[in-house]
Every structure is written in C-alpha cells, then in structure tokens.
Automatic annotation (TrEMBL), chains A, B, C, D:
<comment type="subunit">
    <text>Homotetramer. Forms heterodimers with either ThiH or ThiS.</text>
</comment>
<feature type="binding site">
    <location>
        <begin position="210"/>
        <end position="211"/>
    </location>
    <ligand>
        <name>1-deoxy-D-xylulose 5-phosphate</name>
    </ligand>
</feature>
<dbReference type="GO" id="GO:1990107">
    <property type="term" value="F:thiazole synthase activity"/>
</dbReference>
<feature type="domain" description="Thiazole synthase ThiG">
    <location>
        <begin position="5"/>
        <end position="253"/>
    </location>
</feature>
<keyword id="KW-0963">Cytoplasm</keyword>
<comment type="function">
    <text>Catalyzes the rearrangement of 1-deoxy-D-xylulose 5-phosphate (DXP) to produce the thiazole phosphate moiety of thiamine. Sulfur is provided by the thiocarboxylate moiety of the carrier protein ThiS. In vitro, sulfur can be provided by H(2)S.</text>
</comment>
<dbReference type="InterPro" id="IPR013785">
    <property type="entry name" value="Aldolase_TIM"/>
</dbReference>
<comment type="pathway">
    <text>Cofactor biosynthesis; thiamine diphosphate biosynthesis.</text>
</comment>
<dbReference type="InterPro" id="IPR033983">
    <property type="entry name" value="Thiazole_synthase_ThiG"/>
</dbReference>
<comment type="similarity">
    <text>Belongs to the ThiG family.</text>
</comment>
<keyword id="KW-0784">Thiamine biosynthesis</keyword>
<protein>
    <recommendedName>
        <fullName>Thiazole synthase</fullName>
        <ecNumber>2.8.1.10</ecNumber>
    </recommendedName>
</protein>
<feature type="binding site">
    <location>
        <begin position="188"/>
        <end position="189"/>
    </location>
    <ligand>
        <name>1-deoxy-D-xylulose 5-phosphate</name>
    </ligand>
</feature>
<dbReference type="Pfam" id="PF05690">
    <property type="entry name" value="ThiG"/>
</dbReference>
<keyword id="KW-0704">Schiff base</keyword>
<feature type="active site" description="Schiff-base intermediate with DXP">
    <location>
        <position position="100"/>
    </location>
</feature>
<feature type="binding site">
    <location>
        <position position="161"/>
    </location>
    <ligand>
        <name>1-deoxy-D-xylulose 5-phosphate</name>
    </ligand>
</feature>
Length: 262, 262, 262, 262
C-alpha cells in the first residue's frame, strides 16, 4: 500500500496543506485525522514566525510524531527567480531538498505560469532539489517539466481554493495515459471527498489539498473524510472499476433483458 | 455513527446486493470487506436453490456472523400483483417483514413502474411489511410512496447495472431538500466509489449497489473501496463541504488576491 | 421542412409561450421574430381579460397574420378534474381541440403530477381533445400517456422557468430511442439557444419555451435567436453529427497521428 | 452585425476549414451553405497541388465569388522554425499576411506547443504577419501571445477532430472575462451545432471548425446548420440569456410558487 516519492516511501496518498486553519490545535487534530504524511508549509508565513502563534510548531510536532515529511512551498512567488531564491531559503530553514514549486501566473486565479515554472524547475533540479511542480493540466507543459528533471507532477484540478473539483477530466486522463510511470498528484481545486476519490480512480497517485479541509465546517472530521476517500478511490482504481453501459440505446433486441441480477 | 431503518439500528450505510459474484467464496469475502450489514437477495434465485451452488449459504453465514439483516427483493416482477405474491413468499421463507420492492417497468432499462410500485407498496404496507421501494427520482412518485406508508425511499441514480453514477443530481438534491427526515438510499446505477461518496455528500442516508462490486476486476477489494467511500462521503456531509467559488469572473478588483494561503 | 402535429402541418419547430412579456407590443414583435406558429396561452389569464391590457389581442393578431395555431394550456391546475374542466372551457372559448395539459404536482418546482396527468389525459382524449401533455422524462409515464391516446409528448428538460437546460440527457435520449415515430417536444427548462439546439440534435421534434424569451434582456432578439437555434439543431440532426473521438487514450500506436487534416 | 479581424470587416462569425471533404464540389457547396467568409487551407496540401484534384480551385472560386478571405495554416509543423518557414511560403503563394499558426505539441492529440507557438508568433509578428494562433485555453499562454503582438486568439475547445465540444467551459469563461476586447475564436473540438452556439453564448467572437462539417453525414446541410447555430448563439449572447434558477432548494417558503406564468 505504500508508494514512493523521490525515493521516500509513504504510507498515505494524501498530502495536506497547513494554511488557513482556525487554530494550531485544530490543525494538529486535522493532521492526525487525515493520516497524511506529507505536509506543505508556506515559507513566507514561517519567516513571519513571530506572529505565527503556534502553527509551525503544530506542524513540526505532528511530523515528529508521525515520521512524516515536510514539503515547503513557494506560494506567492511571481517569477522563477523569486521562487528559486525562496526555495533555497526553505532548504536552509527546513533542512530538506523537497520543494513544492509554485509560480503564480495570474493574480486572481493564482494559476501557474508555465514559463516561469519550467525555468525555476530547471534551475532547482540543477541545484539538487527534489521538485514538486504545481502545474496546469497541459501535456506539453508537463513533458517540459519532466525534461528538466522533475520526477513528480502536480497538475491542478481547478483554481486554488475554488472547491470546484476536476474541471477537465479529459486533460487529467490524457496525462495519466500519456505519462505512465510518472507519479501524478492532483493539487488544488478539490472541494469534496468525492472529487478526491474521482482523481484517484483516474489513476492519479495522490491528492494534495488544503482549503477543502481548512474551510470545512469541521476541519478535523473533514480531514478524516478525505483520508478515507483517497484510500477508497485508490482501492477502487486497483480493484478495476466496472465498464459503463449506456442503456439509452437498445443495442440488443428489446424483449431480451440486458442482464439478470436476481 | 449508527442510523436506523424501520426501527433497526445499523452500523454501516452500505447495503450490498448479492447477485452475479464469481463464486460463493468471493461473495463471502466481499461481504466481509464491505462492512455492509444489510444484504439483498433475489427470491427467484433462492427458489431455484437446488442449483444455487452455495450462494445463499454464503449470505446466511455472513449475516449470522455479523448480526446483519437480510433484505429480500422482488427483482424480475412486472406487476404489483406478482410482486405482492413474491413478497409474501419471501416473508415465509426468510422470516422477515423487510422487502425491497422492485416492479420492472421496462424490459431494457429495468426502470421501476411508478404505478405498479405504488400499488404494490400500498398493499404490502397494509399486510405488515416494511417496504423499501426501488423507485425513480421523481418527487411526486416519492411522495405517493410515503403517503401509502413507506418509511424509506430508494431512488435510482441510473439504470441497474449501468455504472453511470448519478445521472440527475438535481432530482436527487430536490428529493433530499423536500423530504427532510425521510431515509433516502440511492439504489442502482452507482459504478465507482466516487459516485457513492457523491450521493452521501448530497445528504443521502445510504447507498445500495451490486454490479459495481460483483463486476469489478477484484470484487473483494472493490467492496472495501465502497465501504470506505460511503463512510467518507457521509463524514464529509456531516463535516460541511466548503462552498464553491467560481473564479472565472473577477468579482473583486484584479490586483487583490481572492485569498492568501501561504 | 414541415412537420405534423395532430394532422396539422407546421412550418416551424418552435412553440412559444406568451406569458410574462414586458408589454403586448414586445410580445407581438417576439412572436414575429421567433417564427413560431404555435403559441400557448394560459386560460386563467384570459378569463381575467378585463385586466389583460392587450396581451391576448396581440396573440390573436399575430396568429391571424401568420396562420398559426393557438395552444391553450391548463397551467395552474392541481388535479385532473380541475384540468379537465379548464380544458373544456378553453375549447369553448378558443374554438380548438388542442390543449396543453399541465397538472402541477409540486408547488415549488411546478413539476407534473404523473398520476393526475394520465388521468386527465385519458378523459380529455375520450372527450375529443388533441392532448399535448407536459410530462416528466420518465419512460413508463410517457408510455401510459400514449396508451390513453396522446399522440404527442412534451417532457421537461428542467423545471419551468429555471433555465437550466437539459438536466438529464440520458432520459431524453432514452425516450427518443424507445419511442420512435412519436412527436417529442422538450417543454420547460430551456435557458439558452444552445440548449434548444441540443434538444433538437437528440432527435426531438420541437421545443416549447417561454421564460427564456420573456425574461431575456431583449426578448425580441432572443426570440429570433431561438428560432435560428432550433432550426440549426434540427438541420444538424438531419445532416448527421460526427462521431465523438475520445483521444485521451491512445488507441493507436503513439507516433502515428490519429488523422491528418492539412 | 459585422465584426473585425486585423482591420478587415467580416459579415459572418463562422470560419471554416477546407480539409477532408468528399469532393471539391461538396466543399464548394458547403462553403456556400456555411456563409463563412474566412476559409483555412493547409499549405502542405497545396504544395502537393498536382494531386489536389480541384480542392484548392474550389476554395479560390468561392472566395472570389463571396469576397472572402483566405487564412493559410501551418498545420503539421512541429517547431517554431518550421512554422515560420511555412508561413513565409504561404505569404508568397497566397499573397496574404494572414496566417493561422499551428505548432503541434503532441502527435496524438495534436495539441499546440505553447513554447514553440509563442516563439513562432513573436517572429511572425516582427515579420509583418497578422497571426491567428491556435492555442490552448491557458490564460497565461494567451497573455504571452498578446504580449508578442497577436491581436486575435484561437483557443481550442477540445482536440482537433474529436468533436467533444467545450471540454473546459471554465477556462473559456476565464479567457473571455479576463481578456475583454480581444477577439476570441474557439478553434477545434466542436462537434455539433449546439457546441458552437454555446461558445458564442459565452461571449466568444467566432468559431472555426472543419471536421464537424467535413465528417458529417451531409456536409452541405451541416455547414448550413453551423452557420445558423453560430448566428443564433451570438444573437442570444447579445440579447442577454436569462439567469439560471436552481429550484432544488426551496429558498422561499414552500406553498408560495416561485413565479406564475399563466
């Protein structure tokens, strides 16, 4: 049941963001309930740790207890250079080569900028980082990220914080089909547990989300719900989902039943 | 976490059908993996028990072990009278007042016939049955079923065995909104764990399915997947799913970010 | 290009409702722009003709000019008996055997009540009416309406006035496939011209709508838009829409292009 | 009703591709039936004109008669350099500065390569071309194309020849909202007239398609159907489509009707 990201074996396919929780204690409980072993954290917040009020401590504590892995991110960066600089600071601060690479391409949807992203990824790979690029669902962009040395891809399902689910299942299916063997994680846009299960049923390897838990009525229970849904979707994928039947069009002579289940 | 159907407390919101499994042993394992405590069985098959090859025994054994509940069905009946007759036979045979009432209205889609269904339900309630009607997602039909004494409704998501998921979420949301307090179970059409989670997130009380497990590549693992997905969807519903944001239309001045998660 | 309803040849597949327009003059212009030759009118409004302010006159005038046909409706009736009574009054008043039969089954969605609808249809057919039942998209209900003598069916696409388009294309496709030769008209729920075109592409014979024109920013231009969209959808259906290709899954060896269009 | 592309006023919002028709005569009739005034042509085919069998002559003839405009394309090019070279040849051959810029990024889906596309566009704008880039629906990529001097954008609806319609309406709405004033044309993926109407209702300025006409059962009638659907969608957009109402959730007290249309 374990899987591997950049050589590290993980017991859960759920990657959880740590921003926007009501309190450090709710965050702590939500992490426990989620079962997630990879937690993202925005460096900019940490740098302002004087006003952090205990959130970073909650993240560190739970990681220590679970043996989990921190995944610093470059949220808020607008250029490759800015992201590269922040990534290096994150490596110093957190003592990890893992970096979730975000380069914002639009102030409103916060979508990735493919050009700046590929450029930053290329540099960071050269600098020895294990890069997790937050990217769009474009096949050519994804291939470029692989070409510069990324070993994991994290395409969006929908804009960050929108909760709209998988806006373009076709594009996601295309990525899965055309990039066999590459760990693919849907990152951003997931709103409900069923969205996460759907991503896993498409053959994705993991799900990263934040708002859907942090903004839920009860973040702790929602974290548990997503943990179960991601496991369920993966299990369903592995067990082989049945083929759909149309049934609007009678392909067999009417009078014969399509099948008998009694 | 328990809920109640006709006065009986149940630990799982998953109701599993028992037709079409590769072998009695696979059925047995799938039931265990599912966590389901209510199992449906088609009387017509049981009546041909000489050729049953052990499936009914598997059902009875697992129910005995789990303390679960049998839900005989009238699958294959085409008229109210036929269904009423079969229901009475089922009560004799299985010693239960529970009956899943199916009256086929179309030979190809196997959809319910609303008229025959209401008529049969009315008679069976008078005869002391606890009726679980397999019905369409039509609000007026559902109200008629309640009017004649049904205390549970089981609208379809899609045709039996189609695996298409929830074809008309609007109709299902309408039922949930307009029939508060009535136990509602999506029955038929579910193909993947994400479909089941979606039904639960809509506020439905349970999910009944059969083909999606029996026809899976690995029915036992798929049974477990559905068990988890249904629990996840319920938990998500209770935890309060976040509100969706459009984000295609900039409702705030561009330049300001819609929110900040770092 | 003409088609036939109850023996009457019609030059347009657009049936237009006449309620809720800003003024009689806008209604008059919208009718002209639509090209519709069948206009529905609610009897209850006509009966209050003292306060009608010219709407009925606008309808009558345009019908006289176009050689069109009035289709009185029983909107607002809640029982079969009420609808039958109103239909007889409509026949007296408008001197036509055509009746659009509406029997409201829910005060909020205004959905049809299948039971009262079939009952009223049966009576009205016996009384010599040409019945146009506004019905749900349920196949069994539709067959019952045919059994009692209806020669046209008008299933909903979505609730009246919702503008949601075709909520359940599966159900509509099923009706078209299973009821060949029966004139089928989508009535209610259409919001945009593309919705109407889609209905026609499914093989439906016509579209009836009201709110989408009456509530448009510019009802007259919107009437023209729907007239064109319905004609376009029909023409597309007759011309044979191309088969969809998935293309997410490479079914041919990658490296070969699926086809060449240059 | 006219609109403008690169300073040229056009009477139709339909741009038609000319590949894959059964015969030159069918192509000729389809062009006439479509009302299109802009026709795309693949240079590679023309260069092999010895085997052209009259298709190019049909295109030239109809353009001469209608006063339309040729839009050569670079279909089949895989790099910016290849596309730039071909564009220059097209300018020589057809004596027009217009060029539909295609740079294939994937052999199977034939999707655009954003990097090569922007690079080629930049060069061609410098060389004095009026560039029509066939692009993905990515906002950042679209902005880059504008930045290098494109004055028109042609995002895809779905892969070329797939007929799947608008796979990601969210992305298209985002483009329309965020790029006001830029002529936007949906190019590729349209299968049915309703898809084209939907694109226009979103506020797009035009539709370019080829396979949906060329592969139709009757290309000539289908060309007419699309011409009407595109006009209908535009008219609907201008007339102001009604707001959708949910109606699954009773926001007003039940018992009151949401509105009355009789």
């Amino acid at each position: 049941m374990t899987w591997t990201l950049y050589g590290r074996s993980l017991a859960s396919r759920f990657l959880l963001g740590t921003a926007g929780y009501p309190s450090p204690d709710v965050l702590r409980q939500a992490i426990h309930a989620s079962g997630a072993r990879v937690l993202t954290v925005g460096l900019k917040r940490t740098l302002a740790a004087a006003g952090d009020n205990g959130f970073v401590a909650a993240i560190r504590d739970t990681l220590r207890q679970s043996g989990g892995q921190l995944l610093p991110n470059t949220a808020g960066c607008r250029t490759a250079q800015e992201a590269v600089t922040l990534a290096h600071m994150a490596r110093e601060l957190y003592d990890t080569t893992w970096i979730k690479l975000e380069v914002v391409g639009d102030e409103y949807t916060l979508q990735p900028d493919p050009w700046e992203l590929v450029s930053a990824a290329e540099q960071l790979v050269k600098d020895g980082f294990d890069v997790f690029p937050y990217c769009t669902d474009d096949l050519v962009t994804c291939r470029r990220l692989l070409d510069v040395g990324c070993q994991v891809l994290m395409p969006w399902g929908a804009p960050i914080g929108s909760g709209q689910g998988l806006l373009n299942p076709f594009a996601l299916r295309t990525l899965r089909e055309r990039l066999p063997g590459v760990p693919l994680i849907v990152d951003a846009g997931i709103g409900a547990p069923s969205h996460a299960a759907q991503a896993m049923e498409l053959g994705f390897d993991g799900v990263l989300l934040n708002s859907a838990v942090a903004q839920a009525g009860d973040p702790v229970r929602m974290a548990a719900a997503f943990g179960q849904a991601i496991a369920a979707g993966r299990l369903g994928f592995e067990a082989g989902v049945m083929a759909r039947q149309d049934m609007a069009v009678a392909s067999t002579p009417v009078g014969g039943r399509p099948f008998l289940i009694s």
